[in-house]
TrEMBL record:
Name of the protein this chain belongs to: Carbohydrate binding protein with CBM6 domain
Keywords: Carbohydrate metabolism, Glycosidase, Hydrolase, Polysaccharide degradation, Signal, Xylan degradation
Top-level taxonomy: Bacteria, Pseudomonadati, Bacteroidota, Bacteroidia, Marinilabiliales
Superkingdom as given in the UniProt entry: Bacteria
Protein family per UniProt: Belongs to the glycosyl hydrolase 43 family.
GO molecular function: carbohydrate binding; hydrolase activity, hydrolyzing O-glycosyl compounds
One GO term of the biological process aspect: xylan catabolic process
Annotated site location: Important for catalytic activity, responsible for pKa modulation of the active site Glu and correct orientation of both the proton donor and substrate: D150
């Protein structure tokens, strides 16, 4: 039976076939799986930077069987973000969480304001909805005191929410109950690999252990790695690799891990539909398993 299930998933990847999607954050809301990915498009002269990532908006997808996915359409576009630079096409990896019946969608975008280094750096915005598929209304200002990409929010059992993000290193801070402001100074998470870019944090809890998962770039490949701690702010101890580099030579990868209908799943991306241009990516799912000691068994990406 388990083998049959694996075959069923093997036949699914990539799961979205009519557009490019990347950086999938999967969440279970009201018994249904929702995926909030980035939306890769091809940059053209005057619209993004040719040869680089180009993202103008976000869609959300949902499914109750991980096989048939509904595209709920655009939930946030760069034109809706008052504080953002609407010419930058940099709507990178997002997240969405539920709190007290509201859905908070976190996304990075280039700020229209030049920062202290003279650049239009990345800030993190929040858009709020009453339903997981929207409509989402972006806040007029980004989260203060945060510069970076790849926001991830983890809400612990005691109700405390934490915001994680990346800017070479991985940062964490507490969020206030309003989910819109930091409630502590940003901390760089220690004990992660010294060398190489660390991005895409995604934190989850299982059996009292907190798993900080992240893609780690070294020598132009990106591995999905993880560290385990006993508190959402650490300390964390590097533990292992979840997925080795893409067999298709996709430079990036980006993960979320979620429990649904008695099974853990890894969501990630690769460039199966665009083998010659790895900035046009496609999201995939594979089952994920734990060892008895809580460590994660490495996942081999399945193909169609
Ligand atoms: O999709 C743009 C960037 O590539 C993401 O923000 C990173 O995590 C990497 O996947």
């Amino acid at each position: 039976m388990a083998w049959g299930c694996t075959i069923a998933l093997l036949s699914q990847n990539p799961i979205i076939r009519d557009q490019f999607t990347a950086d999938p954050t999967a969440r279970v809301f009201n018994g249904r799986m929702y995926v909030y990915p980035s939306h890769d498009i091809l940059a053209e002269e005057g619209k993004g930077r040719p040869g680089w990532f180009c993202m103008e908006d976000y869609h959300v997808f949902s499914s109750d069987n991980l096989t048939q996915w509904i595209d709920h359409g655009v939930i946030v576009s760069q034109n809706d973000v008052l504080w953002g630079d609407s010419t930058s096409y940099s709507m990178w990896a997002p997240d969405c969480v539920e709190r007290n019946g509201k859905y908070y969608f976190y996304f990075p975008a280039n700020n229209r304001v030049v920062d202290a280094t003279g650049r239009k750096g990345f800030s993190i915005g929040v858009a709020i909805a009453d339903h997981p598929e929207g409509p989402f209304v972006p806040q007029s200002e980004p989260i203060q005191n945060v510069r970076g990409i790849d926001p991830n929010v983890f809400i612990d059992k005691d109700g405390q929410a934490y915001l994680y993000w990346s800017m070479q290193n991985i940062y964490v801070a507490k969020l206030k109950d309003n989910m819109l402001e930091l409630d502590s100074e940003p901390l760089i998470i220690a004990n992660l690999p010294d060398k190489g870019l660390k991005e895409g944090p995604f934190v989850f809890e299982r059996n009292g252990l907190y798993y900080l998962t992240f893609p780690h770039v070294e020598n132009n490949i990106e591995r999905l790695e993880y560290a385990i701690g006993k508190h959402p702010m650490g300390p964390f101890e590097m533990t292992g690799v979840i997925m080795d580099e893409s067999p298709l030579n996709c430079w990036t990868n980006h993960q979320s891990i979620v429990h649904y209908n008695h099974q853990w799943y890894l969501f990630y991306h690769q460039n199966e539909y665009s083998p010659n241009f790895d900035k046009n990516r496609s999201i995939c799912i594979d089952s994920l398993f734990f060892n008895a000691d809580g460590t994660i068994r490495k996942v081999l990406p399945s193909r169609r």
